[in-house]
Amino acid sequence: MRTLEIQNGGQKETYTFDKYAQSSDIGIMQKIGGTVILCTICVDYNNPINENFVPLNVQYIEKMYAIGKIPQGYIKKEGKPSESEILVSRLIDRSLRPLFPKYFLYPVQINLLVLSYDGKSDVYKDALNLASISLFCSSIPICYEYVPNGVRIVKHEDLISICNDFTSLQNSSLDLFVSGVYDNDDIAKITMIEMQALKTYEKQENLETIDNDNLQEYSNEISKELLLESTLLARKYIAKISKLYAQLLEPFCNTKHILTYECNSNLKQKISNDFGTQIKQHLIADSKSERKTALSKLASDIVRYYDLPDDEESYNKIESCIDAIKKDIMRNMIIKENIRIDGRAPTQIRPISIESNPLPLAHGSACFTRGQTQALVTCTLGHQNEAKATDIFITQKKARILFHYNFPPFCVGEASHIGASSRREIGHGNLALKAIESNIKNNTSTIRIVSEILQSNGSSSMASVCGATLAMLGANVAMNNMVAGIAMGIVHDDINYVILSDIVGLEDHYGDMDLKVAGNKKGFSAIQLDIKNICITQEILSMALQQAQDGLYEILESMSAVNIIPNYDLLPQRLDFTINPIRIPDIIGQGGRTIRDIIAKFKINIDFNKEKGIVILYGQSQRSLNEAKEYINEILKKKERKDIHKQDM
Q: Which residue range or ranges hold the K Homology domain (predicted)?
């Protein structure tokens, strides 16, 4: 057993090697305060895959015994990963994936088990740093000599700072998470960014309202200048920690595995000479589905043309070469000809069409189409009791705004079944929720937004953001500002680079960056950045954000031009009134009998603010709410008369 202690940001980190999970390629236990996380990495060097992506799987798991709790539900055992666990797994995956060599084809499994949690540390950041350290010390040959790590940046009033624990997020107007690695510069190379503008509140002493505690809301969109300043602070901190980790961890590293790769460069060049013109023609002229069919047929023709064995290995080699040729053609067109495969200029956005409230019985709906990407988004309003209960380490509360993103196989022309939500669907839904959440005004209802992707060729999550804004306005949900979204990309060579607005699927797949930006004319509300193998300088990031902002303005103009007429007749009504708080049990009745009778009689729902004595009624008509209020007041009057009579007796 070996241990290492590191001082990082005023806290002591202890790492234990060669003691736990010794059957793994590497197993490291991390202890920070009362938080303990175990990371294991396993690699299958005997069964490389025949795909063009790194077969990495990250599993972040929170054990309920870590906070001294028994899991809820009938089974009383941790089951499938929660949404928060999936989101953290994705955050770690996206941070580490750019570090793998281009042709690393061996399946890798990274497991992170939270075994103890003190409620103070930023366990998501700690888990990422532990996974990075474990990857650095494992047998996997990563692309850098230093240790990747992450940091969270917060903003209180006008001050941005490093977030060392989750309490720093309270009352912050910014939640910025940056991952990166030192790369022979004073600032780190970015591998991932996640940003959300957080809503803040300010007490208004002269404002009298019933249920918002006299608070003024602020949506706090982040300006480009502030985002760049915050990112620079994060990059400098990451570079410092990256060098510190590498220096201290070097004695604990395993022997690195030597990679072997079978190069098909001669075959690729031959196919490019003989069939390059055909491939380019299909790339430019065909739609997404037509291209897939045509290139699959071309692969079969090439196998026969070169008289190759009619087996899976030959087809895989040919398809791999065609894929590489497609990539070269697309990138050369953009860099050398300044034109994209669909004929657009780098800053040009695809044609947009919008239909408001196309669904006659949905509370609010919108169909947002941008090029070959189409999102049908609905908004449903409910009462407070329909909020989603969350039971996670960081916070245990009810979520009143829900965003569900569905990506059925038919949206990309695939014939397969529709199953449970994938990690990608959960991640895209969460990003869209972050984009709109701070701009929803004084929400006391439950709002469920569902985005059905009917057709997809890039940027479907950002189409969901646009559609969600329009659907909420169609349901008469009050918003501070409209929110739009756009996906940006970049293609570069050793000298030049071109930033692309509103990228399509191939530009995402073959490009070097996927930058999703949501916001409005006040600033950015959410950002997600994933990169492949390019160093995103502050200058490039600034230019990409400015180009994204210009694109958002154009999209917002299209959205603002839509005539939105809310479905007033369908929307649930609400009625609030106050009573003496001690009378609330009289409305509930013995065993809940009275309140059940009221709900059944008037077809309404009832919530309470028990501290203030506020009764909240929800129903489909104002008449039923008024009648229910009168009925409740009669119940209370009778109860009061009975109590007075008892006192007289």
A: 571-637
